[in-house]
Write a structure and sequence with these properties.
- By secondary structure, this protein is mainly beta.
- 4% of the residues lie in helices and 60% in strands.
- The chain has 1 helix and 12 strands; from the N terminus they run E-E-E-E-E-E-E-H-E-E-E-E-E.
- The strands form 2 sheets. It has an 8-stranded antiparallel β-barrel. Strands 1-2 form a two-stranded antiparallel sheet.
- The longest helix has 8 residues.
- The radius of gyration is 18 Å and the shape is elongated.
Amino acid sequence: MTSSTDAVTRDWQGLTIPTAGTYVLDAAHARVGFVARHMMVSKVRGEFTEAAATITIAEDPLQSSVTATMQASSINTAQADRDAHLRSPEFLDSEQFPTVEYRSTGVKSQDGNEFVLLGELTIKGVTRQVELDVQFEGVGRSPFGQDIFGFSASTEIDREEFGLTWNVALETGGVLVSRKIKIEIEGEAIRQA
């Protein structure tokens, strides 16, 4: 471990990681995205443009935790009619359920810079256990004096388990929107004073 009183990093199991503390997601350097298959032949990508997260890095990194909130109404697939449909009661029902929430419950495993984070994802009032595959991307100090670290995370969920069951059967077989949704997160987190 680095002994300097203003150290931003420390060594842990061959990794250079942030010192313990509370970090928040930097909205200017974050993407909380998803991918769904459309008509069984192509992919539609979207994101939540309003997301906030607090990450607590513990002295024992395997005791670290994260909470995150996405504003359901901020869903954006770059197509206004589809976005309106996704906000409607047939999907997220963003008026009745304004947020999508994630809360970690533990770290399942670690291999190098790869971690599996256990947690609870709540969509439309339904909470399910979700495992996030997380990659720690690095740590440093920005030119503005901010202590930061980068990460990426992904998982796949079955949207129907969260009550998002709207669909249309296709004449050629299959459905309009896939049940499986891939979640892709990229971000930087900034230490709080």
